[in-house]
Amino acid sequence: MNKPDYWFDDDHTHAAAAVFLLTKDHRLVLQLRDDKPDIHYPGMITAFGGGAEPGETPAECALRELAEETGIQAQAEDLLRLDAVSKVDFRGHPTASVFFLLRDIDPEALVITEGTAIVLSFAEAAADPRLTDNCRRLSALIAAMLRQ
Predict the structure, then answer these.
(1) Tens digits of residue pLDDT in 56-75
(2) Which of 129, 117, 128, 125 is nearest to 142 (CA)?
(3) Which domain holds residue 120?
(4) Quick check: is 24 in a domain?
(5) How far apart (Å, rounded) are the C-alpha atoms in residues 20 and 74?
(6) Residue 71 maps to a domain
(7) How many domains does the chain have?
(8) How many Å apart are CA 123 and CA 34, to the nearest integer?
(9) Is 104 part of a structural domain of the chain?
């Protein structure tokens, strides 16, 4: 996609990256977030990810967060960049977020340290009201990519 490369810049004091996981049989592995009021999207379904550390690139952030939250040790070349968005987070920080896709994941091999892994078909994802707006939009984009 030819979207802007939002990241730390004059308009964004914060950045984050997230990874959508896709199984070999084309189901999504997403994160059901813990229901804690002091985190982003409590009780909602999102991709695995989190905030960037100073100096990290979007891919470095995505890979670090993925390893921390799922135990997956992937490489930057394994990630397919889906989109970048600019938003104001729940604390009021202008945040750049970059989203990636990682394919051929075995959900049984994951070691989840935050939230709960949830495996959904694309139809189930489209119907689940707990998906965040970006998660719903990008899940639909991934489904469209697979149909091509």
Answers:
(1) 999 999 999 999 999 999 99
(2) 125
(3) 14-147
(4) yes
(5) 13
(6) yes
(7) 1
(8) 23
(9) yes
* 9 within a domain of the structure (yes/no): no
CATH number of the domain enclosing 71: 3.90.79.10
What are the tens digits of pLDDT across the range 120-137? 999 999 999 999 999 999
What local confidence, expressed as pLDDT, does residue 3 receive? 46
Per-residue pLDDT reduced to its tens digit, 10-66: 777 778 899 999 999 999 999 999 888 877 788 999 999 998 998 899 999 999 999
- Residue 2: pLDDT band with limits 50, 70, 90: very low
Largest separation between any pair of C-alpha atoms in the chain: 42
Rounded Cα distance, 90 and 53, in Å: 18
Cβ atoms of 41 and 136 within 8 Å: the answer is no
Q: Which residues, listed in sequence order, are joined to residue 98 by a DSSP beta bridge?
A: 17, 84
Q: Tally Cβ neighbours within 10 Å of residue 84.
A: 18
Q: Residues 88-117: what's their mean pLDDT?
A: 91
